[in-house]
Amino acid sequence: MTSPLRLAILGCGTVGSEVVRLLHEQSADLAARIGAPLEIAGIAVRRLGRDRGDLPVAPELFTTDAVGLVKSDDVDVVIEVVGGIEPARSWLVDALRAGKSVVTANKALLAEDGASLHDAAADGGADLYYEAAVAGAIPLLRPLRESLHGDRINRVTGIVNGTTNFILSAMDATGAGFAEALEEATELGYAEADPTADVEGFDAAAKAAILASLAFHTRVGAADVHREGITEVTAADVASAKAMGCTIKLLCIAARGTDAAGRESVSVRVHPAMIPLSHPLASVGDAYNAVFVEAEAAGPLMFYGRGAGGAATASAVLGDVVAVCRNRLAGVHAPSESAYADLAVRPMGEALTRYHVSLDVADRPGVLAAVAGVFARHDVSIATVRQAPAGTEPAGRGVDAVLVIVTHTAPDAALAATVEDLRGLDAVRSIASVLRVEGGE
Ligand code: NDP
Ligand code: HSE
């Protein structure tokens, strides 16, 4: 067996500590699979004095000098499990330019400035692997960047945030409101103390950008992704979805299409949407992730598993470590970023979707016709209409009714303009909810 490959581990929190543990527990197997033993050169952390339990590693390996560790000539592979944009970007760019292989779980950095990392990898002739950055343990990025490179991917639809999937699943199961379900997610350790990145869709948007870049051979960044979170989803929305045989999920959707000028382009978006219970993603509950890929020759493919958690994410990190170490020993590196297609990203207004609109209206002659007229004016076709009485409304204005309208597919801008005009109708008392509907048409 050859001399050891030396690893610099940046970060030893939820994911990093499990990486260290698995490296220790599986050292013999990993060495056999790679053809050389792995050795930890150092572990960079923020707080040297932090209690790290019974981690099987010599205390003198810990350092707060991440820069020194990354620059050390004695390091072959840098594993970054710190997170955030800086200083992680500078560390990784330096490592890649120096020809060191990098394995990272940092979706925020890849979505914000993946270009700098890919360029540095190309400059340094180094490997950049990031399987753990999207959907945790699920082998997904390698299939997209290798196995499916002979095919043409048309659409990727995914549940890529476990925290929000837990919250929406709890709302669906118990009828709880968003705040109550978030509280439960926090108590059980799914949601972080500051849940903004998850519930406002930032985490899913970063993952959507990474998925779209790989699926469509195009650089897509977080800023290109239309993003809406789940904070506005109400118990009434969930009940309404149920009444339609649907459930609500926070979806990331990356799709090929044509722009207004007829050029091939992509749209990338993250938002809550109703999906029929028959959709493959509808049964993905709890904090699980799943991604549904539609490829031209392969057809539909479904990837499912744990999208977060220390051990699950460390599994993906170690898979990458084995791959980059094998490459080093063979004297090769993985193909560089594939961004040759360079497709334009369509604005959200041009994305094709369907709307579910719930309106509180006056129950009198001509109201349905007036409402339908607004849809017609924007060239939006109505698929179904349901009306139910909703109790007595203020004196002198007749009896309220609830109108639930589901549209056929139309550009998002036309649907949004329709809803805006509905607000101006005298007979419309309020718009109780507007949700997109995906799948099933
Ligand atoms: P944690 O917050 O648990 O751990 C972060 C680690 O980074 C800690 O060990 C911390 O040190 C160290 N650190 C922070 N700042 C510095 C610094 N300036 N210099 C050196 N070390 C520093 O994060 P996670 O393990 O949860 O996440 C790590 C990465 O993995 C992130 O990019 C995240 O998005 C990604 N990821 C996480 C998943 C998860 O389930 N947690 C799932 C998929 C991806 P100290 O211990 O001293 O505080
Ligand atoms: N906060 C993320 C989630 C962790 O809930 O899915 C994994 O990226």
TrEMBL record:
Protein residues bound to L-homoserine: 192
Binding positions (NADP(+)): 10-17
SUPFAM superfamilies: ACT-like, Glyceraldehyde-3-phosphate dehydrogenase-like, C-terminal domain, NAD(P)-binding Rossmann-fold domains
InterPro entries: ACT-like_dom_sf, ACT_dom, Asp/hSer_DH_NAD-bd, HDH, HDH_cat, HDH_CS, NAD(P)-bd_dom_sf
GO MF entries: homoserine dehydrogenase activity; NADP binding
Cell inner membrane keyword on record: no
UniProt-annotated catalytic positions: 207 (proton donor)
Reaction(s) catalysed by this chain's protein: L-homoserine + NADP(+) = L-aspartate 4-semialdehyde + NADPH + H(+); L-homoserine + NAD(+) = L-aspartate 4-semialdehyde + NADH + H(+)
Keywords in alphabetical order: Amino-acid biosynthesis, Methionine biosynthesis, NADP, Oxidoreductase, Sodium, Threonine biosynthesis
Top-rank taxon: Bacteria
UniProt record, GO biological process: methionine biosynthetic process; threonine biosynthetic process
Residues that bind NADPH: 107
Record bears the keyword rRNA-binding: no
Pathway assigned in UniProt: Amino-acid biosynthesis; L-threonine biosynthesis; L-threonine from L-aspartate: step 3/5; Amino-acid biosynthesis; L-methionine biosynthesis via de novo pathway; L-homoserine from L-aspartate: step 3/3
Record-listed E.C. numbers: 1.1.1.3
Pfam families, sorted: ACT, Homoserine_dh, NAD_binding_3
Cofactor needs: a metal cation
Function: Catalyzes the conversion of L-aspartate-beta-semialdehyde (L-Asa) to L-homoserine (L-Hse), the third step in the biosynthesis of threonine and methionine from aspartate.
Family per record: Belongs to the homoserine dehydrogenase family.
Name of the protein: Homoserine dehydrogenase
